[in-house]
Amino acid sequence: MHPDIERVLLAREEIQERVRLLGTQISADYKGKEILAVGVLKGSVVFLADLLRVLTVPVEIDFIAVSSYGKASASSGVVRILKDLDRSITGRDVLLVEDIVDTGLTLNYLKEHLLSQQPAGLRVCALLDKPSRRRVPVEIDYLGFSIPDEFVVGYGLDYAGRYRNLPDICVLRREVYEGGR
Ligand code: IMP
User: Fold this and answer.
1) Mutational test site, ligand 1, from 68, 100, 125, 170, max ligand atoms within 8 Å of CB
2) How much is the pTM?
3) Could you read off the pLDDT of 118-143 as tens digits, one per residue?
């Protein structure tokens, strides 16, 4: 195990199984429709890549990037769009794909941003949720796992840009981010 990791919270097999079930559920709900999956860069890329391959309905993808917390691991509450969508979502069935919902500020902002462009529908799929940290209420239509208030990395999630390549979702040792949260 990586020396900065305290423990594995969700092992790769468990993640795969959950993603497979999410894919089945989403495919059933969107039967007869075409999904435009919007991944929130960069944390959602691994999840989105796996989710895509278990969807059985037609799907296109696009990406949006918002300002991250930088090196600190706590939300400043300020969300800024760094990269917007390539194409219009007006009239499309949009599935917003997030890695983790923490305070809810990012998701709340993104939902409003996307809704202002009049999609036919907008649903949210998040791999992880930390409900105890919520500052604004947000609805998650498809959720992978609800987790306790611990800083996690791996399977696309980072701390200061690192650890995204770890195949499991892991709790980062406190010493690594101490002072930054
Ligand atoms: P929110 O706006 O506070 O809900 O923050 C959501 C974003 O914060 C996520 O998309 C992640 O980029 C980041 N984040 C929150 N908690 C964690 C964590 O435990 N590990 C890695 N990134 C996190």
Assistant:
1) 100
2) 0.94
3) 999 999 999 999 999 999 999 999 99
